[in-house]
């Protein structure tokens, strides 16, 4: 009888280790496929916003295309056409669409 009890305890311990391994592998997969790429994209966006200079072609999050006329702190003045300028926050500029615009030229 004691032998059967010890065998049951041993079997339950290996099941718990399997569950811990499974849970740990799920967390690891989520990190590499969800969290890490998001951190990389955020770093690229921050670099893009800090390196904006006069003459760059940009696209806003709202889809407005223009050329950077001036940069004053967190505000960027975009020239849409000759004489038409628009002030936007740097955070309103889209890295993805600006890359596509610059790669197409």
From TrEMBL:
<keyword id="KW-0811">Translocation</keyword>
<dbReference type="InterPro" id="IPR003849">
    <property type="entry name" value="Preprotein_translocase_YajC"/>
</dbReference>
<protein>
    <recommendedName>
        <fullName>Sec translocon accessory complex subunit YajC</fullName>
    </recommendedName>
</protein>
<keyword id="KW-0812">Transmembrane</keyword>
<dbReference type="GO" id="GO:0005886">
    <property type="term" value="C:plasma membrane"/>
</dbReference>
<keyword id="KW-0813">Transport</keyword>
<feature type="transmembrane region" description="Helical">
    <location>
        <begin position="12"/>
        <end position="33"/>
    </location>
</feature>
<comment type="similarity">
    <text>Belongs to the YajC family.</text>
</comment>
<dbReference type="Pfam" id="PF02699">
    <property type="entry name" value="YajC"/>
</dbReference>
<keyword id="KW-1003">Cell membrane</keyword>
<keyword id="KW-0653">Protein transport</keyword>
<keyword id="KW-1133">Transmembrane helix</keyword>
<dbReference type="GO" id="GO:0015031">
    <property type="term" value="P:protein transport"/>
</dbReference>
<keyword id="KW-0472">Membrane</keyword>
